[in-house]
Amino acid sequence: MSFLEDAAPASPGAAASRMAWAKVNLTLHCTGQRADGYHLLDSLVVRAGVGDALHVVPAEDLSLTVSGTRAEGVPTDARNLVLQAAEMLDAGAGRGAALHLEKHLPAAAGIGGGSADAAAALDLLSAHWGVPLPADTARLGADVPVCLTRGPQRMQGVGEVLTPLSALPPCQMVLVNPGVDVPTPAVFSALSDKNQPPMPDVIPTFAGFSDLIDFLREQRNDLAAPAIAREPVIASCLEALSDAALARMSGSGATCFGLYANAAQAKAAAHRISAAALHWWVAAGPILAA
Ligand SMILES: C[C@](O)(CO)[C@H](O)COP(=O)(O)OP(=O)(O)OC[C@H]1O[C@@H](n2ccc(N)nc2=O)[C@H](O)[C@@H]1O
Ligand SMILES: Nc1ncnc2c1ncn2[C@@H]1O[C@H](COP(=O)(O)OP(=O)(O)OP(=O)(O)O)[C@@H](O)[C@H]1O
């Protein structure tokens, strides 16, 4: 089980570090489809207080090593979004950096693990090399622009249109992943109605936890039904979170989140679910305010 307290501090030899916080889609409405096949979205996105950590030390060449509880199977070559972000930023200039990724988020899990790592790499290396961020970071992945922001965001377009929202009331979250990879393209393809209603034009400022929950209850994750049809265990994750004020799936799955009013409730739920489903990944922490 992972908690915010487990988040890796800057490693002793690192010149600089960044956290790559999990991205959670509190809502995910699919409102259309572009001619190139990408889907138009309307999503309320937050960061959970659990994530990967990326460290850099100066070096002649560009390199990446990976450790951590979820390091198994994560590529260390050019397939890794951290190195793709570095190459994008370097633009062929041949700059070096020794990068080390502490991987704690499951991959292909709907919480943007790879996208958050790419955003952390862009932010870290932009400062380390003294070069500006490129404009078209969505080329690395539709979730990369939102992972470069802090605080709650309304995400529209195919992921590149971002509107910062007022801070949410304090809210604790439990994340549960049953260990099945859910490929994003397959879930989008299986979505039968791609023209569903957006969120309201104006997202209100929430006075307290119960106002936030009341609002979210009226919203949807349109990818939940096709994801559950592919992987029915996702419904079991939602069932395991049934003591939460609200339980939904994030992104294209399979990770589900439960929202709780306080940390004691969230930790109790996380312990209960971990004990009952030993092979599931379970994490608890606050929604990050900024
Ligand atoms: C489902 C979300 O996680 C919601 O935040 C994102 O839209 C997906 O973000 P991502 O994994 O960074 O997406 P990408 O790596 O750019 O795209 C993976 C695949 O998802 C599908 N895709 C993604 C984003 C989008 N707006 N429409 C899509 O149809 C496409 O088939 C694409 O080939
Ligand atoms: N830094 C990285 N960490 C994890 N996986 C990576 C990384 N870089 C590349 N990958 C590859 O990308 C794939 C998808 O990873 P990622 O965690 O971004 O997907 P996701 O959880 O589906 O994100 P989303 O929330 O956008 O659906 C993995 O199968 C993995 O092989």
TrEMBL record:
InterPro entries, per database record: GHMP_kinase_C_dom (IPR013750), GHMP_kinase_C_sf (IPR036554), GHMP_kinase_N_dom (IPR006204), IspE (IPR004424), Ribosomal_Su5_D2-typ_SF (IPR020568), Ribsml_uS5_D2-typ_fold_subgr (IPR014721)
UniProt domain GHMP kinase C-terminal: residue ranges: 220-275
The entry's keywords: ATP-binding, Isoprene biosynthesis, Kinase, Nucleotide-binding, Transferase
Entry annotation: catalytic residues: K23, D143
GO molecular function, one term: 4-(cytidine 5'-diphospho)-2-C-methyl-D-erythritol kinase activity
Protein EC: 2.7.1.148
Pathway(s) where this gene product acts: Isoprenoid biosynthesis; isopentenyl diphosphate biosynthesis via DXP pathway; isopentenyl diphosphate from 1-deoxy-D-xylulose 5-phosphate: step 3/6
Name of one Pfam family that matches: GHMP_kinases_C
Gene3D superfamilies: 3.30.230.10, GHMP kinase, C-terminal domain
Enzyme class name: transferase
Binding site for ATP: P106, A107, A108, A109, G110, I111, G112, G113, G114, S115, A116
Catalytic activity, reaction form: 4-CDP-2-C-methyl-D-erythritol + ATP = 4-CDP-2-C-methyl-D-erythritol 2-phosphate + ADP + H(+)
Positions of the GHMP kinase N-terminal domain: 80-143
Family: Belongs to the GHMP kinase family. IspE subfamily.
Record function comment: Catalyzes the phosphorylation of the position 2 hydroxy group of 4-diphosphocytidyl-2C-methyl-D-erythritol.
Protein name in UniProt: 4-diphosphocytidyl-2-C-methyl-D-erythritol kinase
